[in-house]
Amino acid sequence: MLLLLSTFFLLPSIVLAQVEEGQINIDTTLIVSDSEAIMVAPVTSLIASDYKYDDGEIIELSWVPSIDDQLVSGKVFGYKVYRIEDDGEPEMIAELAIGSNSYNDQSVERGKLYSYFVSALSSNAETPSTKTAPIEPQREWLNFKLLNVLIMTLVLGGAVVYFIETARRGKKLFVRKIAGLEAVDEAIGRATEMGRPILFIPGILDMDDVQTLAALTILGRVARVIADYDTKIFMPVSRSLVMTAGRETIKTSYQTAGRPDAYSDDMVTYITDEQFGYVAAVDGIMVREKPATVFLLGAFFAESLILAETGNSVGAIQIAGTARPAQLPFFIAACDFTLIGEELFAASAYLSGEPKQMGSLKGQDVGKAIAMVAILIGVLTATIGDAWNIEWMQSLTTELRQIFSTR
Q: For 22, left (φ over 0), alpha (ψ -120 to 50), or beta?
């Protein structure tokens, strides 16, 4: 009897020692008997549907939460979402908080079948829902939620085509005058009268920047007038490709003016790619040569004010233009004429009068007019509707937001 009692009391110590030494493996998972499990009601109306207007990579799940989740003293602790891929084993893909009634599975692939079920969690048990029917995600080629964007694109594209054809038929299209470009001939004429050169700076970015391309387009017109007036031009650049393009542009302009012999490659010189090294060299040219006219057209950064102030200090007429809003105030303050933003890009159409460019410019104006009218109506309806609580105006504001939304 004493032997049995001693064995009974010593057995836990022996087992504990063996566990600590790793001789016995014990599964520490909580095991709850059926009588101890706290069961909750399952979720209902579980629906799996293909997400519309995607590339076949999302499946939407929605359900009605467990009735025990909807009670004031609910027993639900959350939900687990399980997925079955091609009749395989269930895989938990998400664990959601109480009150959840939807989930988007964004890890699916086209060509596979997926089934789902959702388990409502109590403190120590799960209650699974019924399994959904197998569903395969599909790719939609057209997103009809963005039909408004398609319509606006067709309207603007149609306007561009219409004005291009109108210009091709010889009808003169009205384009408002741009003061900076109107002053080009006057500025070059002033340099000719004073016997001083013209300095053309096409920004500091390479040929892959659209502002540099716009600057070279204007250079073609400027060089043609310079060739006619027999004026000297300096064009220091900070990119080798811009140097090559600048030389070709000026050379073509001189040939068009019938003075190919007056052209020289020395008109365009490469300085350096380093930003402020280039600025220092250009400022030195301004101080030494004292140009009568300076063109600052293209992409500029911190050097814009340095260049503009130096040109102003030597008494030059300065025509500047850039699409970088942060640099425009410096040009407006220190230069005589400034092409603001899009005016730089409209310059090629304005100077050339080419039908495609003129038609594109007028087509863009149609889009701007539509946008301005929509903004004006939207501001008025939002202000008046909220101020006096006019329901139809608030509805109109919402409709306008939806029409011009890209989501």
A: left
